[in-house]
Design goal:
The protein is built from six helices and 13 strands. It is of the alpha/beta class.
């Protein structure tokens, strides 16, 4: 497995910019990237059939959900790349960076802190590449999908925990068998059994460990039923096995 890190130099400073992780091979093609100050540098993108992306609240936050999706793509991970932005970056620049990979599928993680900018990104991608398959996931699009413009613009919305459902969808789309059902209700995955979840930690690298917040998941679901919290809707509670750590 190889990784490509979007990192370069501007004057004396190292630019920790848009993050790109992949299970595939680095391509010699080039792409423009934004650094933390909004400047542009030029880097080699990875040709990827699948691009997983999101807008983090800040650079120091690493997208835990995207790494889970990548870890559970199976053989498709060789054709996939993780591309991370932060909410301060322009959506037109994010769209340019994503499309430089020439993807067939773009998966976007939508959360409360990036719902507005994610909607703008989807509209931008739809304008630039009308035939691109756009898949949404995350808590902000798992409920009230019929009331959200971003869901109308996307090809598919995976509601709930998409770790395994996303791979199944990608396999069908890349095989030319696009499902007719746009809204997909994902079954809660488990950490044991025949179809157990793969853990995402190999998709953190030394730069992440040194410079960013590393998330560790001990369990999913919540035993409480607080009316104001979406976590109360997650059933059942599942503990992550300790042994793999």
């Amino acid at each position: 497995m190889s990784f490509s890190l979007s990192r370069g130099y501007a004057g004396e400073g190292v630019l920790f910019t848009r993050r790109v992780l992949t299970g595939g091979v680095v391509s010699p093609r080039r792409v423009s990237l934004c650094d933390l100050a909004g400047r542009f540098v030029v880097f080699s993108p990875i040709m990827a059939a699948i691009v997983l992306c999101t807008f983090n609240a800040r650079y120091i936050h690493a997208a835990f959900g995207l790494r889970y999706l990548m870890a559970n793509l199976g053989d498709l991970a060789k054709q996939a790349a993780i591309v991370e932005f932060d909410v301060q970056q322009r959506t037109v620049d994010a769209a340019e960076a994503i499309l430089a990979h020439h993807p067939e599928i773009v998966g976007i993680g939508v959360y409360i802190w990036n719902a507005t900018v994610s909607a703008q990104l989807v509209a931008e991608l739809r304008r630039l590449r009308p035939g691109l398959c756009i898949v949404l996931g995350g808590p902000e699009v798992s409920y009230e999908t019929d009331q959200q413009e971003i869901c109308r613009l996307a090809d598919y919305v995976i509601c709930g925990e998409a770790d395994l459902a996303f791979r199944e969808l990608c396999e069908k789309v890349l095989a030319g068998r696009r499902p007719l059902q746009r809204i997909i209700q994902a079954e809660p995955p488990h950490f044991d059994g025949e179809h157990s979840l793969a853990l995402p930690y190999p998709y953190y690298d030394s730069v992440d460990v040194k410079n960013r917040v590393i998330y560790v998941e001990a369990s999913r679901g919540c035993p409480f039923k607080c009316e104001f919290c979406l976590s109360s809707l997650d059933v059942p509670v599942r503990n992550v096995p300790v042994e793999p750590f």
